[in-house]
Write a structure and sequence with these properties.
It is built from three helices and three strands. A three-stranded antiparallel sheet has the order 1-3-2, with helices on one face. It has helices at 7-16, 30-34, 43-61; strands spanning 22-28, 65-73, 76-83. By secondary structure, it is of the alpha+beta class. Strand 2 and strand 3 form a beta hairpin. It is globular and about 40 Å long.
């Protein structure tokens, strides 16, 4: 298992990324891995993952990131953040 992405690393990537740049911010099952009870991650890692996922979602809701998923195995998904183009935030 790899170490979870940290907030400083995620924010550093976002600040330096250009539109179209992508980052895999988690490999696994995000909903399960973020949950306090069923997650097999140590509490510190689970909490860190939860903060990164929440930050990614906030940036996506603001139109600055696109969030996509790619299945890499039966029970393993790559969660990918892609920097959005343009300076205007989009609201759906």
């Amino acid at each position: 298992m790899t170490s979870p992405m940290t907030i400083p690393a995620f924010q550093s990537w976002f600040a330096g990324a250009v539109p179209g740049d992508g980052l895999i911010y988690h490999l696994g099952l995000l909903g399960l891995d973020r949950a306090r009870g069923p997650s097999s991650l140590p509490e510190a890692a689970r909490s860190q993952l939860d903060r990164v996922a929440a930050r990614a979602l906030a940036l996506a809701e603001d139109g600055r990131l696109l969030l996509v998923q790619r299945r890499v195995a039966e029970d393993r998904i790559a969660y990918i953040a892609i920097k959005a183009s343009g300076d205007k935030p989009r609201r759906i």
